Amino acid sequence: MNKVISILLVLSLMSCNSKTSSNNDKEITASGSEAQQKTKIIAKVDSNSNKNLSLDSAKNLKEKKAEQPKETVKVSLDAFSVLPKDIEGCSCYFYLSKKDKKEEKYIFVNDFAKIAFVSVNGKIEKFILKEHQEGTDIYLYSNGTYDLKTKITKKESDGTEGSNEEGIITLMKGSDILFEKNFIGSCGC
Q1: Which of 17, 134, 155, 189 would be 90's cystine partner, CB 3.0–4.6 Å?
Q2: In whole angstroms, how large is the CA radius of gyration of the chain?
Q3: Taking the model in full, what pTM does it have?
């Protein structure tokens, strides 16, 4: 490849006996062995720069791939109406709207904060409580794939053993928030 570049450069230098510099209009001529030496130098530079270009091109391709946004997979929390068998007795039931509450379409259910269930992309997923500090109304759950956070923002006694609640439910994967909505609901026995 170096020989091909050298030959092409010699031919181009021989066909152009002079070049004009746009900066100071001086004529530059090259002939004979001087042209061959310049051609060898240019050929070496070109062959090295081609290698550098190919390395730079590979680096640029990697950078472009890294710059491209990750393919986003749409994740949704869906309402469900059939309670998992682990939910019996004292429980919390959360809904996205009053209409969903009336129709018993749950967005979240738990057995008083130890085990929780949500429907992710139409599939019921079981979550285990990972963290809750007494005195706070924030509950953190995980199932190995997703993290789930419920934050109670309003709690009122329903006059019996239960409470009516409002809050925010958040589904995360790592540090990415996939779904976050307000909910209403109730907890009781």
Answers
A1: 189
A2: 35
A3: 0.62
